[in-house]
Write a structure and sequence with these properties.
The protein is of the alpha/beta class. The protein has a single domain (38-66, 77-233), classed as Rossmann fold (3-Layer(aba) Sandwich), CATH 3.40.50.300. Helices cover 34% and strands 26% of the residues. The protein is built from seven helices and ten strands. The protein has helices at residues 51-58, 81-91, 107-117, 122-135, 151-163, 181-198, 209-212, and strands spanning 6-18, 24-36, 40-44, 68-71, 74-75, 92-95, 169-173, 201-205, 217-222, 225-229. Strands 6-7-8-3-9-10 form a six-stranded mixed β-sheet, sandwiched between helices. Helix 3 (107-117) crosses helix 4 (122-135). The longest helix is centred in the C-terminal third of the chain and has 18 residues, at 181-198. The protein starts with 5 loop residues before the first strand and ends in a 5-residue tail after the last strand. The protein binds adenosine-5'-triphosphate. Residues 17, 19, 25, 27, 45, 47-53 line the site of adenosine-5'-triphosphate.
Length: 234
Amino acid sequence: MSNKTVVMSLRGLNRTYNVAEGAQLEVLKGVDLDLYAGEVVGLVGPSGSGKSSLLHCVGLLETSEEAQLIIDGEDLTRANDKLRTRARLTKIGFVYQFHHLLPEFTALGNVALPQRVLGRSVREAEARAKALLEQVGLGERLNHQPAQLSGGEQQRVAIARALVNSPRLLLADEPTGNLDPDTSKQVFEALKQTVRHQQVAALIATHNLELARHMDRVVTIQNGKLTELSTSAV
Ligand SMILES: Nc1ncnc2c1ncn2[C@@H]1O[C@H](COP(=O)(O)OP(=O)(O)OP(=O)(O)O)[C@@H](O)[C@H]1O
């Protein structure tokens, strides 16, 4: 791993939730994780083990005062809201189980939109959106609205949207969770190819062990700690 570029480095993440009557639930207890450019890392584990909690902290959606977090060379440990929002926009792409595409926009419009937020011209944004949609195999579906696309196509648009602002880190929570096995595989392959091509680091939470076997590395959370699994043993 020494010649690889570290994209995300996390040290000492604890996550404790206050639950009923002053009781506390310790979900993450000192999690360390490094993610490298161009790799797809699976995050597996039973329901409630803390996968989403980990993704939310790495994705700067939740704060963790004590953990050290560096993304793309920027130390975001205890960063303020403004810096976190900026980092989310420019350094991190998110893909969820449900695509959350805007129904009134076309595939092209959905992928162009996040670039407009960063100030790119319509022309530039659409050209880049088109190139990415072609890369995920949707060159023939540019002007379809989400309702006119299949579930797998919608999810590929969501992947293109997540990657369009050239983030260094891609975080996904069950990105193929509502797709049939064949479509799921196709969507995953599109994701993997784009990650390799753009040299993004991807962390993907999934219950789909068949998919996890096709990832570069697989980690799991056991009793609040992160453990690396051998992909052949998943
Ligand atoms: N805001 C909260 N307040 C209290 N408890 C919480 C909160 N968020 C999560 N939890 C608890 O923390 C644990 C970990 O939740 P998390 O959503 O991270 O698990 P997960 O591994 O992603 O589960 P799943 O696979 O079902 O999505 C669960 O037991 C959950 O009930």
